[in-house]
Amino acid sequence: MIPAITFKNNGINFKEKAFKKTLTLLAILAVVILIAIFFTLLINSFPSLKALGAGFFYDKTWDPVADEYGALPFLVGTLLTSFLALIISTPFSIAVAIFLGEYYKKGIVAETFKNVIDLLAGIPSVIYGFWGLFVLVPVVRVIELKLNLPPYGVGIFTSSIILAIMILPFSVSLSRQVISMVPDNLKEAAYSLGATRFEVITKIIIPYTKSGLFAGLLLALGRALGETMAVTMLIGNTHSIPTGIFSPGNTMASVIANEFSEATGKIYTSALIEMALFLFVVATVINVIGKQIIKRFTI
Amino acid sequence: MRNNDLINAEDSRSDIERQIAHRNKKNKRFKGVVIGATIISTLPLLFILFYIFRQGISAINWHFLTNLPKPVGEAGGGVANALVGSILILLVSCIIAIPIGIVIGIYLSEESKSKLAYYCRLAVDVLQGIPSIVIGIIIYEWIVRPVGGFSAFSGSLALALMMLPSIVKSTEETLKLLPESLKEASLALGVPYYKTMMKIIVPTGLGGILTGVILSIARVIGETAPLLFTAFGSPFMTTDIFKPMSSLPLIIFNYATSPYEDWHQLAWGASMLLILMILILNIISKIVQRKWKVQF
Amino acid sequence: MESAILKVRNFNAFFGESHILKNINLDIDKNNVWAIMGPSGCGKTTFIRCINRMHELTPNATTSGSMQLNGEEVYEMNPVLLRRKVGMVFQRPNPFPTMSIYDNVIAGYILNGIKLSKQQKDEIVETSLKRAALWMEVRSTLHKKGTFLSGGQQQRLCIARALSMNPEMLLLDEATSALDPVSTSKIEELIHELKAEYTILMVTHNMQQAARVSDKTAFFYLGEIIEADNTKTIFTNPKHEKTQDYIRGHFG
Ligand SMILES: Nc1ncnc2c1ncn2[C@@H]1O[C@H](COP(=O)(O)OP(=O)(O)OP(=O)(O)O)[C@@H](O)[C@H]1O
Ligand SMILES: [Mg+2]
Asked: CATH classification of A55-298, choosing from 1.10.287.110, 1.10.3720.10, 2.30.40.10, 1.10.530.10?
């Protein structure tokens, strides 16, 4: 016989409801946090928005001592490093994505390279910066001497190279995901018509995945725009507009990192937060658009 | 006539053959380029690992792990406070982020079609894309400024905010893959919904959830930017999470950008330590993923 | 006189707009085995899922009408408590993959946080597994994972799991359709034996099976009960044309 065992039933209804409430509340919390982040940045940017207006983005002088806050040099620095990094890394990331998504999908080669790329993504930004400072900077200095340029070593170019390495794993994983979505029957149809692999890749896969690959690049760009530590260590931190790709400069993220904890005065702090707001908005727009494209693509 | 035809046919056949040969050559060359570019892409990792291990290996010893940093000019010194700080800060962020992340993940997998789920998913996506330095500023404005001082706790909050999205996503994705019949089996036994979720669904998906958690720890363990204005750093050994605290990435940044050779040495050691920790976390996550796979 | 353990009156079930069960009336007597038959999609699964209120777990699924278990209105009870009284076995075996065989049997207690002594646990496990005709096969491997068993064994484990809760009623939804003939006949024997203590409702597509093990049969067609009577009557002397067609294998 199965012994008769009485179940305690007190509070099942209450606990059931409490559990569901908790789930809902925390889901709401995630949304609230995001909204709060936006408003925190917005409200703290008010003094700067009011005092500087649109001039914030086209004034060339950033001189806290003189109470002048023109963020143009940093805007230029940010865009320059990010796009340069994207240009450097894209051929490689597409190649790796094709390698992993088409040539070596499975097996030990694929696993090895996948793990290497994953590790590349796992190395902290500060270590990239440190390594860049001691290995890359001397190399760039030599190049600059050869080119008859002032041998800063640090600067836009150096930062872009490190950034390119840092965003590579990110765009690889997105592009690979997209490339693996190409239906097999499409490829087989092309092969059955006598197409070579090269032709399948360039005439079937790339056109089919165009929008997805673009989204991958966009999201990688978003990453590069906000990347802080490595760039801070390698860009030279000057407050003037960069004159070329080998010149030192500064990005918005690295200005914040360098100056935020020492910033005195309402407008100074607020101007830095306005840059954070700008980074937040740009990153969010890029992120939402990119993910939307990828989502539409994968369905 | 006939002859002529034959000649033409011959001609075009060799034409076709030539064309095929050309296409094959192109095909091969392309494969070569792809493989070459892939190999080049992995070189930075090898360079970086090689360099850091070469520099770091001589720095790491017992003394290094158990001593505090020395002032400039004195040789020796260690990173004990940064090591303890890193672990403490992470521990607190885990305590905050893991339960919240898992619960949100449960919500998203259970109510996947609701309006709130849509906005929540969007918020989590956006949260994941926020530059880490911005997170630092946010926590500074939320905690550090009102309280009036840097603290390890605020650093933990910043890292927790960075861990949250990936924990949410891995939980959601893991739980979505579990068969509905599992939940029904439990509910049909008269097990309340909340117990079904916590005692059947979450434990069955534990492998996937844990993998996500470990990877998110590996991702934030080296984060520096969000700690600059929160945990801030400290030359002392402290376990009071409401005081400023050192951490490995912070001392790497501070020492790497200092002009002193001794400090560079410490930074190499700390970098190697950090990379080892990340490697180990990655390996653990792989093991968990493989070993904890639930068989249906 | 037999007393009806389950009384269904003017019962309807819906998935959103679509009306799946239409005006169902049925009395289920204690210690009877009922077979629920009918062509695919006629609402058999929906019906038995309404009895333990699993139906309402589907979004937009609703019901109307009355259903009484031992005189108590099912749709006014707490569904959790109801499900402890009405056990269910699904079409596909679904043991808990994280639990041992032993824990699977007493999962209802473990998950509900009921503290049992070692002795009580052993007793429940042994009795339930014996009733489910699985004891001899697994007595030496009780601490292995339940998912290592064969499909038929897993299904009997699920039956043991349902029996361990001492339900008043047992619902089987095509419980043998995924099993081989040997496991099937074991489960059929089992149903025969369980009748003494439980009231059983089984959905089946297998007419021989219904004829072999059930006392009564209800024939469903397009969401309605066309005929419900003694199994013998249904099979030898069906009153309704549709039932005749079905029995003769004209559809379904
Ligand atoms: N989740 C659902 N949402 C909407 N309609 C459903 C859902 N589940 C079942 N239905 C519909 O309800 C009707 C009855 O389904 P049910 O599963 O009860 O049939 P059944 O008699 O058990 O069939 P079978 O013999 O194939 O198991 C079917 O027409 C089906 O299409
Ligand atoms: Mg069915």
From this structure: 1.10.3720.10
